[in-house]
Design goal:
binds fe (ii) ion; binds 2-oxoglutaric acid; about 300 residues; alpha+beta; Jelly Rolls; single chain; 7-stranded mixed sheet
Length: about 300
């Protein structure tokens, strides 16, 4: 029944851009007011994708018990299948290729338009779903991801402006069979955590893609990883971008060696939140006027 209901509906496919056709106004409109997702094709070379994939396979092979923290996998944990999905966290420490991905100029340009010029990165991790591996509970992403308790968030919070953007860099073919991320087009427009009555699995479409594609979506979009019913792995790099003042999910600078921070590019420093000083011990900060239209030039 479900399969029939899905196949009889016209498919909604996220709009596809390339570095040559990038149009940030259109993308911002698609993410907020349209289907909630776009695909950017052609940002990474086959070599970069192969290198990233190899590192992720090695790291996750050595975690056969899937001992790392994961999210929205309660059912898999109950069914004893949690080891068929694996996370690799703190990717910046695991290969230069991940810094190139996180700070790709086209992603920077797009995110500056969407989240503000001084946006930051809250997480960069891989999600590998092995053959036979489980899907996730339909959800929305950080910082909305505990919106199943809306009373813990500000009153009248809504999705008229974004507190999150996700980038999924596809490393293996994302097909219906391998478990391409599912989403409900347009669901980002009203900020709500999906529940049973929303019939997510009857209504969802897939973020299909080839290795090297980058899917960008607004984290208020209802979505989830789907079960991998194929015989091959399904991996992706998941990047979370946030406005500069949202508390990031990962403490990325604390997990990196001093030498990485000392040699980081200006864009990487921005992504790590090092350009925005708060919270600060103001009692110990340099004296004088530090904010306003007329302020000290050098802090
Ligand atoms: O890997 C996927 O397809 C999506 C993962 C996801 O949505 C998440 O971990 O929050
Ligand atoms: Fe998610």
């Amino acid at each position: 029944m479900h399969a029939h209901a899905q196949s009889s509906r016209p498919k909604t496919v996220p709009r596809i851009f390339t570095p040559e056709t990038i149009d940030t106004d259109l993308i911002v409109g698609e993410l907020l007011d349209g289907v909630g997702a776009v695909t950017i094709r052609g940002l990474f070379t086959a070599d970069e994708i192969a290198q990233a994939r190899q590192i992720i396979m090695e790291e996750s092979n050595s975690d056969a018990q899937a001992a790392k923290v994961t999210h929205f996998q309660g059912a898999a944990e109950r069914e004893g299948k949690i080891n068929l999905q694996r996370r690799v966290w703190n990717l910046l420490a695991k290969g230069d290729v991940f810094s190139r991905m996180a700070a790709h100029p086209v992603l920077m340009q797009t995110m500056r338009a969407f989240l503000g010029t001084e946006f930051i990165m809250g997480s960069i991790a891989a999600n590998r779903i092995l053959p036979g591996g489980p899907g996730q509970e339909p959800h929305i992403d950080y910082p909305y991801w505990d919106y199943h308790c809306p009373q813990t968030h500000p009153s009248r919070l809504n999705s008229s402006f974004p507190l999150n953007a996700q980038a999924t860099i596809v490393l293996d073919p994302f097909t219906e069979e391998t478990g391409a991320t599912a989403y409900v087009p347009g669901s980002q427009r009203s900020l709500r955590y999906p529940d049973e009555s929303d019939r997510f699995f009857d209504r969802c479409e897939r973020m299909l893609g080839e290795p090297g594609d980058t899917v960008i979506f607004f984290g208020a979009l209802w979505h989830c990883a789907m079960p991998n019913r194929s015989t091959v792995d399904r991996s992706a790099v998941l990047i979370q971008y946030l406005p500069k003042w949202v508390k990031p999910m990962e403490n990325i600078p604390a997990a990196l060696p001093e030498s990485f921070l000392d040699t980081a590019s200006p864009d990487i420093r921005q992504l790590l939140g090092l350009n925005y000083p708060y919270p600060e011990i103001l009692d110990a900060a340099r004296g004088g006027n530090a904010e306003g239209r007329t302020m000290m030039k050098a802090r």
